Amino acid sequence: MLGWLRHEPSLPALSALASSDSDADVRRAAIGALGFAHDDSVLPPLLGALRDAHWQVREEAAVTLGKLRLRAARAGLEAALDDEYWQVTLQAARALGRLGERASAAPVASLLAFPLSNVRKEAALALGELAEARDTAILAVLEAALGDGDPEVRKSARIAIAQIRERVSAA
User: Fold this and answer.
1) Are 61 and 50 spatial neighbours (Cβ–Cβ below 8 Å)?
2) How many other C-beta atoms can be found within 10 angstroms of the C-beta atom of residue 96?
3) Is the pLDDT of residue 2 over 50?
4) Same-domain check for residues 74 and 152
5) Which range marks the domain in which residue 75 is found?
6) What is the model's pLDDT at position 48?
7) Is-contact 150 120, C-beta < 8 A?
8) What digits encode the pLDDT tens for the residues 111-123?
9) Rounded mean pLDDT of 85-90?
């Protein structure tokens, strides 16, 4: 409720719950509620949550970091690309796309070989937000994804390539 109300004075209490509550559901809810913050004061509990024992908490942390677009979260999100749960990997890729940090393009591109098509699809879309026309290796990987066995991955690769090319023509 505090997150929906955007109650700024509650940020320290929500951060404490996100970091140390014994119940994973409470930590997860507190992490989601931190998504209204307007500064990076919530970065430490969110980065800590990317290493939580419960995958649902890690997933929520990646989602929230994507909403906040905190550039300082890049390294933590890149590490989360290797999470044992695909749901966390997918959300970390999505969040990195939202950050728009070109340096994250290569780690995200490696997900185009992921066994699960949902992750490959999200990686392609994130690359559309991250890569530039001069990233020829990334464009080559996206072009290779045009031959993926899943039509949604192919569609996402086409969208990503179009986004990259649009940025070139707009510049």
Assistant:
1) yes
2) 31
3) no
4) no
5) 1-99
6) 97
7) yes
8) 999 999 999 999 9
9) 98
Q: Which of 52, 69, 99 is the last residue of a domain?
A: 99
Cα separations in angstroms, 99 against 102, 136, 152: 9, 21, 23
Tokens of 141: 């990987």
* Amino acid type, 37: A
pLDDT value at residue 105? 94
Do 133 and 167 form a contact (C-beta atoms < 8 A)? yes
Task: Please give the tally of structural domains in the chain.
Answer: 2
101, 136 Cβ separation under 8 angstroms: no
> Could you tell me the two tokens for 21?
């509550």
Distance separating the N- and C-terminal Cα atoms of the chain: 43
Enter the tokens of residue 9: 């004075």
Instruction: Return the residue matching tokens 């490959």.
Output: 120
**pTM: predicted TM-score of the whole model, two decimal places:** 0.92
